[in-house]
């Protein structure tokens, strides 16, 4: 069959402002950026019997506070970010 190949060019063509992807790692941490050095643990919220609405509210709050701009800032100033393997957060 036919297939399709695509590239995520986040370094040469930053799209941070339009990014709408949240990554949930197997350990219950949510990452708002593929290049994030730390995530937010929402495992306790999920295990506490929170309703779908409560979980949605938690995620909306996390998303509204995001300031990830790795690809946009990468060329501006030399920054050192701790490394998190992309395969760990779904990249």
From TrEMBL:
GO-annotated biological processes: Mo-molybdopterin cofactor biosynthetic process
Enzyme class: lyase
InterPro entries from the UniProt entry: Aldolase_TIM, MoaA_twitch, MoCo_biosynth_MoaA/MoaC, rSAM_sf
Domain Molybdenum cofactor biosynthesis protein A-like twitch: 2-71
GO-annotated molecular function: 4 iron, 4 sulfur cluster binding; cyclic pyranopterin monophosphate synthase activity; GTP 3',8'-cyclase activity
Signal peptide stretch: none
The EC number(s) this enzyme carries: 4.1.99.18
Keywords recorded for this protein, A-Z: Lyase, Molybdenum cofactor biosynthesis
Protein name listed in UniProt: Cyclic pyranopterin phosphate synthase (MoaA)
Organism lineage: unclassified sequences, metagenomes, ecological metagenomes
